[in-house]
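tl;dr need the bound structure. longer version: we got a ligand (NAP) that a collaborator sent over and nobodys looked at where it sits. i said id run it. heres the input, straight from their email, havent touched it
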Amino acid sequence: MSRIALVTGASRGIGASIARGLAVDGFAVGVNYARSADAADAIVADIVDGGGAAVAVQADVSDADAVAAMFATVTDALGPVSVLVNNAGITDDGLLLRMKVEQWDNVLATNLRSVYLCTKAALKPMIRARSGRVVNVSSVSGISGNAGQGNYAASKAGVIGFTRSIAKEVGSRGITVNAVAPGFIATDMTEALGEAVAEGVTNQISLGRLGRPEEVASIVRYLASDDASYITGQTIVVDGGLAL
Ligand code: NAP
């Protein structure tokens, strides 16, 4: 199997950690971002300095044309993608009665339509190669639900249903499709919630602390590795015991 990975939303947070980790595991990495060009370039520079190969690629992953162009860029620069990590995601929280239709549509498009678009684009060369790995980043919100996150939880529950369905579609082609469901991980996304919310959440986490991006990346790296060859359609919860 060619060792070429594409990580969406890899300029910051969990995606950046996944991109760095896959590079350590010997993958050439496509580092996708939406707006943070400098941050994405810095990750690529680190990987290249460490002896690896990487390319930064701008694309709004909710946009079909942009996704097609992203795959063309990565394939030209590195080769056909053998590991796709659908990590890009946003929140735009609000109680349902106050949630605007734009908030619903933006979150569903960024978090779920993107997974459909990117997976569809990645599968064609994987099917030809009769091997490949897709790892989708869901959330415990998509399993347990979360007040104020109707749009986000729906998108992340959708990712889990998509993961199971596509795992069944492409299993016979040697392709695995899995998901990870993080709890509260210390990134810009959770920083935006403020200290009071973080403290309240920490009290509900069995391990008594927020997770680190590397602690999600290590599971993604495992699912992308040869060691995970007989695992498909699964959602691995990485939440320090939050959802227990
Ligand atoms: P983050 O720090 O806010 O980073 C989000 C990443 O997604 C950035 O690289 C951003 O790119 C990219 N992105 C956003 N919209 C995009 C778009 N339309 N097209 C392409 N890239 C886009 O988030 P994070 O906390 O690392 O979260 C990563 C994933 O984990 C998300 O799917 C999130 O839902 C999930 N998750 C996070 C937590 C948590 O506690 N942090 C918990 C459960 C699940 P730019 O830098 O260019 O904006």
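gonna send this back to them w/ a short note. Residues 101-129 form the longest helix (29 residues).
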